[in-house]
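Re-run with default settings, no changes from the original entry. Doing this only to confirm the output is reproducible before filing.
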Amino acid sequence: MKRLCALLTAAVMTVICAANVCAVNTRPAQTDISAKAAVLIEASTGTVIWGKCENKRLPMASTTKIMTTVLTLESGDLDTEFVVDSEAVMTEGSSMGLREGDIVSKRDLCIGMLLPSGNDAANCAAVRVGGSRESFADMMNAKAAKLGLNSTHFVTPSGLHDDDHYSTASDMALLAAYALKNPDFRKICSSKSMKLTFGNPPYNRWLTNTNKLLSRYDGCIGVKTGFTDEAGRCLVSAAERNGITLVCVTLNAPDDWNDHEKLLDYGFSVTERTELGEKCFAVQTAGGDKDSISLVTSRNITVPKINGKTPDVTFSAAVPQIVYAPVIKGEELGKLTVLSGGRVIDEIPLISAEELYQVSGDGYKPSLFDRTVDYFKELIFR
């Protein structure tokens, strides 16, 4: 009897596990997702894994602050402190708590935009970087055009509603994939909370991220929430597992948290990394004990395989025409860019696969110690 019960239990568990696997691998139906528009992409290639009205123009609320933060970070000089614009802090909606006369840095404002979704932070950043909110909107649209976001138009830095302020799920996904390449953006948007010091006089305070997926979803690394009455609930998320990064966007989604979990689960069930091996290049040398040396990729080339399909890729190598001795094995001397459809999906250092000894006119070959000293001298005095 005990054996029969054990066999029945095992059979039931097998059926349950099979059902769970099937559920994860099942492509969500359009009706399974509450959003008016949604998309799921693989971040490096931009490949669309799942979509629903992904090219429909809609308001995107505070997910706008992804672009505002990108431009602020790329403007540089992030830690110089300044007094906020007195008019810019006067705004409705969500806030990081700025008041007239407060002393902040642009980094503070970026944190204030991405965590508590401060409209005050977005306005202050726009004035600081662009001179005015109107001029900054021009910068936002110029950047959108450069990134190929052809169905996006910005009017406000915060995402407060305007009939001419809109985007698509697809455009917002591509924008987020671009933003995540910035280490500062990535660090901020993946933080559940951060400690800042600002004000007048400045004092310590904690800001909390509004993105619940950082706690709810394993591997979530951001990105940004949004809401207005006109736009509804908007959410851009990103998650990483096993070397794969997925970006998900929902616009006007009453059940956005669950929408993203379903889509991300599906995405990870149909994507994996596949290795393409390494690349090797021969480079001419001067002043050494051989005429050429080999440069190899510092790691194997890997690309995402989606639904069993490996993307077509091309390679572009940046290597010196001539390498001068001495060279230490493993020294970085170039870069290999991996592209898919003209889009950069990876950049890998090219390193020397061998040593190149410096040879004097009389054929003398310096010792390893002498070559190491010469190498560090070159680094210091280069």
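The first strand starts at residue 37 and ends at 42. The radius of gyration is 26 Å.
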